[in-house]
Amino acid sequence: MALLSRHSIEPGPLPKHAQLKEILTEVCHDDLRPGDSLPSERVLEEVFGVSRITVRRAIGDMVADGTVESFRGKGTFVAKRPLRSDLSLGSFTAEMTQQGAEPSAMILVSERAEPPESVAQFLGDGPHVHLVRVRLGDGLPYSVDDGWYNAHLAPGLLGRSVHKSVYSILASEFDVPIDEAEQVCTAAAATADVGRALGIDVGQPVLRIRRLSSSRGRPVEVCTSTYRPDRYTLRMRLHGGRE
């Protein structure tokens, strides 16, 4: 294949499977798009002059780090790029749209209820709006959002479509723009409910972000988002402090 012709495996200290992984990873990022198929194992053997064991080890390593997905009887395909967040006040919907994916949500809970004490300490006495949503990008699950919203500031929120951005609804329909938030990121293990929603095994590592959001000094949201780490990454830009 033409996209492989500029690459070769050379004698040296780096094992052949590691060289092949580097080559195929570069091809995935530079020449292919998510969902495109990689050349077959037989083609890779012939092009690079390596054994089937070498090819399978390279592809297995790429599956492990999330670069590709392999399906028995179908082949190996470039995996979806992880959603990248710059830790801004933007919504999940805005982040997905900016990165070329179609956002949507599956609603698991939509109710007006008394919040747990940890939520009431921030939002005040309830009842408040409780939404649990599986957030999707191009139909794939990225996170489970368990959010509580101040019903005194957005009393009609349950009557709106919350399959996309709640932040947009709060700003445009209730004049409650989110302008400040505090959030904490932790590692956690997937529970049975989260695993079922995200399509992962119970106990698999997940990224959990708890956000307390405000609008003009008024408490608006307490939301715990649990992400598949293979589909979501955090990026931070750091600067040296002044002495």
Q: How would you summarize what this structure contains?
A:
This protein has 243 residues and is an alpha+beta fold. 27% of the residues lie in helices and 31% in strands. α1 packs across α3 and α2 crosses α3.
Descriptive account of the structure:
With 243 residues, the protein is of the alpha+beta class. The protein folds into two domains: 16-78, Orthogonal Bundle (Arc Repressor Mutant, subunit A), CATH 1.10.10.10; 83-235, Chorismate lyase (3-Layer(aba) Sandwich). 27% of the residues lie in helices and 31% in strands. The protein contains seven helices and ten strands. It has a six-stranded antiparallel β-sheet with strand order 4-5-6-9-8-7. A hairpin with a 2-residue loop joins strand 8 and strand 9 (218-227). Helix 1 crosses helix 3 and helix 2 (41-48) packs across helix 3. It is elongated and about 70 Å long. The relative contact order is 0.12.
**Assigned CATH architecture of the largest domain:** 3-Layer(aba) Sandwich
Give the % helix: 25-40%
Order of helices and strands: HHHEEEHEHEEHEHEEE
Q: Any idea of the CATH class of the largest domain?
A: Alpha Beta
Instruction: Return the average pLDDT rounded to an integer.
Output: 89
Shape: elongated
Structural class: alpha+beta
Q: What percentage of amino acids are in beta strands?
A: 25-35%
The profile of the biggest β sheet is: 6 strands, antiparallel
Total tally of structural domains: 2
Poorly predicted residue ranges: none
CATH superfamily descriptor of the largest domain: Chorismate lyase-like
Radius of gyration using CA atoms only: 22 Å
Instruction: Provide a count of the helices.
Output: 7
The total of beta strands comes to: 10
**Order of strands across the main sheet:** 4-5-6-9-8-7
CATH topology of the largest domain, what is it called?
Answer: Chorismate lyase
